[in-house]
Amino acid sequence: MKANRCRNPIIVVDDLYVNFYTYAGVVKAIDGVSFCIERGETYCLVGETGCGKSVTSRALTRLILPPGKIERGRILYYPEPGKVVDIMKLSEEELRMIRGDEITYIFQDPGTALDPLYTIGYQISETMLVHGYINKIRKGVSRAIQLLKETLIPDPEQRIKSYPHELSGGMKQRAVIATSLANRPRLIIADEPTTALDATVQAQIMELLRNLKKKRGLTILLITHNMGLVAEMCDRVGVMYAGQLVEEAPTEELFRNPLHPYTRALLRAVPNPLRRIEKLESIPGTVPNLIYPPAGCRFHPRCAHVMDTCKRQKPELTRIGNKHYVSCWLYSRR
Amino acid sequence: MVDLRRFLIRRLITFIPTLIGATLLVYFVAAVVPGNPAKLWAGGEKASAEVVQRIIEEYKLDEPWYVQYYYFMKMLLTGKAISPVTHTNVWAEVLDRFKTVTLPLTMLSFMFIILIGIPLGIISAIKKDTVVDMILRIFALTGISMPIFWLAYLLIAALTGKGLVTLAGFPMPAYSITGIPLIDGLLKGDFEYLSQLLKRLWLPSLLLSYAGIGVLVRLVRNSFLDAYSSDFVEFMLARGFPRRRIYIHVLRNALAPIVTVLGLQFGGLLAGAVITETIFGLPGMGSYMIRAINNFDYLSLMAGVLYVAIIFMVVNLVVDILYAIIDPRVRY
Ligand SMILES: Nc1ncnc2c1ncn2[C@@H]1O[C@H](COP(=O)(O)OP(=O)(O)O)[C@@H](O)[C@H]1O
Ligand SMILES: [Mg+2]
Fold first, then answer.
1. If DSSP codes are grouped into helix, strand and coil, which group holds residue A251?
2. Is the peptide bond before A67 cis (omega within 30 degrees of 0)?
3. Is B137 inside a domain boundary?
4. Residue A248 counted as domain residue
5. Cβ-proximal residues to B115 (8 Å cutoff; 6+ apart), any chain
6. Do B238 and A98 touch (CB under 8 A)?
7. d(CA B134, CA B136)
8. DSSP for A191-211?
9. B329 inside 8 A of chain A by CB
10. Which of A313, A58, A268, A309 is nearest to B234 (CA)?
11. Interface check B235 vs A, CB under 8 A
12. Ligand 1 atom 20, closest CA
């Protein structure tokens, strides 16, 4: 098993492949991704849009809807140290019991995540109901109020009776976070939780997540393409490109010493929180079509340091420094 | 609540032009029929000039069309319209035929549309792109495109010998509570009468509803799939909701267009009842209106149309109110 780089992992993903069978062809969306998340840390996945962050995070509970399919790979979930659950071997019902209970999601757009026809309180209670923590929606009311309090929604007694359209975007995202806390979450997967919100609200939501994590002892997988958030929130960062994990390092290390040409380009393309940069550059070229992905290293057509090997052979993720891994031929001794 | 009252008043006011339009249309279509209605009403070619003259005066047939129309409407709306052909009050007969035959016929059809169309549509959506879905879609398309009379005669031929349907007469209960036999039978728990009534009505109702079932299966399938592709469904899956619970949310979200079309379908049933009642010899509003057309009895025809139009508008008003119950975002 190549992936276990963690001492006390909550999740280990090993050699994950996910395809989407579309009319245009087979989209090879995730191509051999391996990583692990340490219990109690905040792990970030970064990368351009379409590079497979969401698909990877959903695959953790096999939440891949047709036409998508997990082709192969191992996903191990450790609810507690020493106790392991093989996600790939679970039945649909067993998966259902984990989703929304122990592993919960927060999606990008709170505007569409909730059913517009039911109240906030109903939908929070329902999340408890489907996991058997209550047996009637009505019995979830007091807990729902308490959860809204926990997510700092003002006037929670009234808000549980509100419909989603009666709340602002930020309030809706807080309500969504409340649903993710409703049962007994261990790992929260936040998929660009603030991308759809404006900047001041973004900061508040992040603050909330940070405090909740501390208070409840959660593990967070944060997906973002905001490097500022990465610096602020994350312990370790995984950089994805076109369905592959190209680099992984502790946050400071990554900002100080980015190795992969894509990571470097990415950091030049965004305001770097650790360094003053005069001008932002865009990464030349576009994300490749994943139906016919480039052979070898998927980044090679856009890479300034491209060599012959890059076009033929996929580089393995190799350890370069303490907890610093990169998959690039520039750093491999062959 | 204040909003609802304002909404109702506003909607009721829009009823007026609609009713005038519908009756005016019927009036014109009937009035341009060649021939002298007074002579026809008086008994044809051998009618005496005296009787013809009296009819002309009584129904203002020598006046311009707008006076005549106004006069007809006045008679109809004050409830005093006497048919020149049957010499009975037109309302009495319209109401009686509606209550006893057309209402149970259309209600049963409506029930079939809802109880068959919605579940089949949901199954078709859930089993999307499977054999089951294909069979249901063929079934739906057949319902929409098959002429009702063709299927009717086919089924009549197949079923009459077996005692499953009756085709003549119309069973009436010996008592009257509300005046609507179907409801009276239910209130009394008179199952013998109800089974007679059903024997007479199930086949015409089912045939009448087939087109509506077809429309509904397709609509429910598509709006269910539409709602199923919403983001909130994925978020429910992510929260570990079981399928059945998700389907309930999806169905409620798919309901608005379904309710709209159901309202329109009700109008379609009233129109279809004309053909169905004629085929099955049912003494309802439809056959009444056909007879009125044949007899140039356009006062009766206008009464029938007016009545159907009012029912249709009320049903659609109910639909609009249902909207707000289904969807909390709807404001009047
Ligand atoms: N339902 C789908 N059908 C086809 N392709 C998909 C689907 N969902 C995701 N993909 C493909 O998977 C790749 C990764 O997508 P995603 O994980 O959403 O990217 P992101 O990093 O922006 O979250 C993309 O190239 C996208 O085209
Ligand atoms: Mg995404």
1. helix
2. yes
3. yes
4. yes
5. none
6. no
7. 5
8. ESTTTTS-HHHHHHHHHHHHH
9. yes
10. A58
11. yes
12. A50
Distance CA A5, CA A9 (A): 8
Q: A72 lies in a domain?
A: yes
CA B93 to chain centre: 18
The span from the CA of A51 to the CA of A47, in Å, is 6
Task: Among A13, A49, A55, A222, say which to mutate for ligand 1: greatest number of ligand atoms within 8 Å of CB.
Answer: A55
Q: β-strand A324-326 against A244-250: which pairing, if any?
A: antiparallel
Compute the distance between CA of residue B258 and CA of residue B46 in angstroms, rounded to an integer.
55
| pLDDT tens track, chain B, 332 positions | 567 788 888 888 888 898 888 888 888 877 766 667 777 787 777 778 888 888 888 888 888 888 888 988 898 889 888 888 888 898 988 898 998 899 999 999 999 999 999 999 999 999 999 999 999 999 999 998 888 888 888 888 888 777 777 777 888 888 888 888 888 888 888 888 888 888 889 999 999 999 999 999 999 999 999 999 999 999 999 999 999 999 999 999 999 899 999 999 988 898 889 889 988 989 999 888 888 888 888 888 889 888 888 888 889 888 888 888 888 888 77
Q: By residue range, what is the domain housing residue B202?
A: 90-326
Residue A119 lies in a domain: no
Q: What total number of domains does chain B contain?
A: 1
CATH code assigned at A308: 3.40.50.300
Residue nearest to atom 3 of ligand 1 (CA): A20
Helix, strand or coil, per DSSP, at residue B5: helix
Q: Within a domain: residue B167?
A: yes
DSSP A105-135: EE-S-HHHHS-TTS-HHHHHHHHHHTTTS-S
State how far the Cα of B118 lies from the Cα of A113, in Å rounded to an integer.
26
- B interface test, pick of A115, A173, A191, A221 with most B CB neighbours within 10 Å: A115
The Cα–Cα gap between A54 and A20 comes to 13
Cβ of residue A82 closer than 8 Å to a chain B Cβ: no
String of DSSP letters for B290-315: HHHHHTT-HHHHHHHHHHHHHHHHHH
Number of domains in chain A: 1
Domain residues for the domain of A256 are: 3-102+184-332
Cα B187 from chain centroid (whole Å): 24
Which two tokens mark A243? 């369905």
Q: What is the ipTM of this complex?
A: 0.93
Distant-in-sequence, close-in-space partners of B107: CB < 8 Å, separation ≥ 6: B182
pTM over 0.95: no
Residue type, A289: N
Q: What is the DSSP secondary-structure string of B270-294?
A: HHHHHHHHHHHT--SHHHHHHHHHH
Residue B37 belongs to some domain of the structure? no
What's the A108 CA to ligand 2 centre distance in angstroms?
A: 8
CATH number where B274 lies: 1.10.3720.10
d(Cα A173, Cα A47) in Å, to the nearest integer?
A: 23
- The reply to whether B218 falls in a domain is yes
Say if A47 falls within a structural domain.
Answer: yes
Between CA B160 and CA B156 the distance in angstroms is 6
